[in-house]
Design brief:
By secondary structure, the protein is of the alpha/beta class. It has 30 helices and 10 strands.
């Protein structure tokens, strides 16, 4: 019962909604589970664990007031998944209606994923989502709480007393590891993860703070039946259906690892509780999934060193798995937060064929082509990008039709990369410039001034032309246009006020920077008028405080280590 849990509970009681943020494996799901149990105990809430916003809305019953919804990894498990975030942006009005009518909602997310998702959520339109009111960083736990968590996991694990006694002198240092990961503490208590762990302070600290390297070693040491089982779960990120029915691709995965279908099925059940867990969806179907997302990331690290498996793993991936869970970056490029499966250069052609098929099968502007565009722009090396371009020369023509709020689109990043490589024909570049010029005037879009890709796409003369068009076509009719046109556009899209304010401020500063103070004054006056006229309604959430929990943090002797009885008597 940590202070972080109490803060989360208070936010849930007051507002009916809480967003739990933190690094991987720091205990977000554990706190959500505790909140679910408390809601059941104190309010008799029916607990529902949907996977997406759409499932939450489907399961919400307006006639059943006491419902508790818990959505893990709401915006993506390892990396930001735009289609999930778009779903939340679409469904937030319904979710907030459920909260207003008595439902309690808990979301969890890795912090870096939420930071990517936040611009697409329109948080300014929903005061309940404001971070200072409902978000909790679960990594803020005290040293005593870290030690107690580690102690609990070791006590509940299956380590032999002799091994616990050997670990005991190093456990306080393990609790001080940064970042401290309760999921790593759970694994330290299980023999399945520590078979070859050298018992020393340095090794145990590394085990706690750098889990992926140790996981790769663990996966190398388990039997081939378990490796095959985990490989099947890996190529089915939504869950491997239980009971097991393998298709041709999955059978080839099993054969490549060196196992059989029967032995793999038995291994799946034996891995539950350590590497895997079972999950039941809203339709009652059971599936095997990784016990924790970091276990999936560790398996990706292991797969990189299995060249005999990679082709068949890649062939078995659907479009979503390919775009969300792999990358084609060279090793020195790195991959930022979240470990994805790195595709080696010999397989670039296979990836390019699959992405080309996505562009061929889906119309321009669909979510799939947007995800493919983002993949090419952000998750591909120059070599992979050129491989794809040679296979799909029509790519530049698919990127010229820009949409309003172009900062949210992946196209400029990819266009900038093509321009840098000399692979963007001037005809298409001019078309992009013309479309950006239109958005700068008609939609007050300032991406051409603020976003890094446009520094490479636009020349100085292009910028001068857009400045002149804004000066002559937009500034003279600014206040009338805001009142009669743009305000209604922003309201229809759910974006009340703030984007327009930011655009007006950006234009004012931009014209001041080039010495055109007359035009800058027009934007400043329009901004002041708009702020005077705007009325913002902030709804205050109503809630009932939970009663104080009867569970208290145990008092400990400050002179006695909390780990002193582990392996006692050995």
């Amino acid at each position: 019962m940590t202070d972080t849990y109490r803060k989360a509970a208070q936010a849930l009681y007051d507002r009916g909604f809480v967003l739990l943020l933190g690094e991987p494996a720091v205990g977000k799901s554990s706190i959500a589970l505790m909140l679910a149990i408390s809601a059941a105990d104190n309010w008799g809430c029916a607990n529902v664990k949907p996977r997406t916003s759409e499932e939450l809305v489907q399961r919400w019953n307006p006639h059943e007031k006491d419902q508790f919804f818990w959505v893990d990894d709401a915006f993506g498990a390892v990396r930001h998944e735009r289609h999930l975030t778009d779903g939340w942006a679409r469904d937030l009005p319904h979710v907030m209606s459920a909260v207003k009518n008595g439902a309690r909602v808990v979301l969890t997310s890795r912090t870096y994923i939420y930071n990517e998702a936040r611009p697409f959520l329109k948080t300014y339109a929903y005061p309940l989502l404001h971070e200072q009111e409902v978000t909790v960083d679960v990594s803020n736990i005290t040293r005593q709480e870290r030690q107690q968590i580690l102690y609990n996991h070791l006590s509940a694990g299956d380590q032999e007393p002799q091994k616990l006694a050997q670990m005991r002198p190093h456990l306080e240092a393990a609790a001080d590891a940064k970042p401290f990961r309760p999921e790593a503490a759970r694994r330290l208590g299980l023999r399945a993860f520590t078979g070859n762990l050298r018992i020393s302070q340095l090794s145990i600290e590394s085990f706690m703070s750098r889990p992926h390297r140790f996981l790769s070693d663990v996966y190398s040491q388990i039997d081939v039946d378990s490796q095959a089982a985990l490989a099947l779960v890996y190529v089915n990120p939504g869950g491997l259906l239980n009971p097991l029915h393998v298709d041709d691709h999955e059978r080839e995965v099993i054969d490549r690892v060196g196992s059989t279908v029967g032995a793999t099925g038995r291994a799946l059940n034996s891995l539950v509780g350590t590497f895997l867990r079972t999950s039941v969806d809203v339709d009652g179907r059971s599936a095997w999934i990784f016990q924790h997302p970091t276990l999936r990331e560790g398996f990706a690290v292991w797969l990189i060193d299995q060249p005999h498996l990679l082709p068949v793993i890649l062939a078995g991936m659907d479009d979503n798995t390919l775009l969300e869970h792999t990358h084609c970056l060279i090793p020195q490029d790195g991959q930022g937060d979240g470990i994805l499966l790195g595709i080696p250069e010999p397989l670039y052609c296979d990836v390019a064929k699959q992405i080309a098929r996505i562009f061929d099968e889906w119309p321009e502007g669909s979510c799939w082509t947007g995800d493919a565009t983002r993949y090419l722009g952000e998750k591909c090396s120059d070599e992979m990008l050129m491989t794809f371009l040679s296979m799909y020369p029509a790519l530049p023509s698919r990127l010229t039709d820009l949409i309003p709020c172009v900062s949210d689109a992946p196209d400029p990043t990819l266009l900038a990369r093509l321009q840098q490589k000399g692979a963007l024909p001037e005809t298409y570049r001019q078309r992009v410039v013309e479309n950006m010029s239109y958005l700068a005037i008609d939609c007050l879009d300032t991406a051409w001034l603020t976003d890094q890709p446009w520094h490479q796409i636009l020349t100085d003369s292009d910028r001068a032309v857009i400045f002149e068009r804004v000066r002559t076509s937009l500034a003279p009719r600014l206040e009338e246009a805001i009142r009669d046109d743009w305000t209604s556009k922003w309201l229809r899209s759910g974006r009340v006020g703030d984007p327009l304010v930011r655009s007006l401020q950006t234009y004012r500063s931009a014209f001041e920077s080039i010495g055109d103070f007359g035009t800058a004054r027009k934007f400043r006056h329009a901004l002041e008028t708009f702020l005077d006229d705007r009325q913002v309604k902030v709804s205050e959430g109503q809630g009932v405080l939970f009663p104080e929990s009867a569970v208290e943090t145990p008092r400990t002797d400050p002179c006695r280590s909390v780990f002193s009885d582990l392996g006692e008597g050995v």
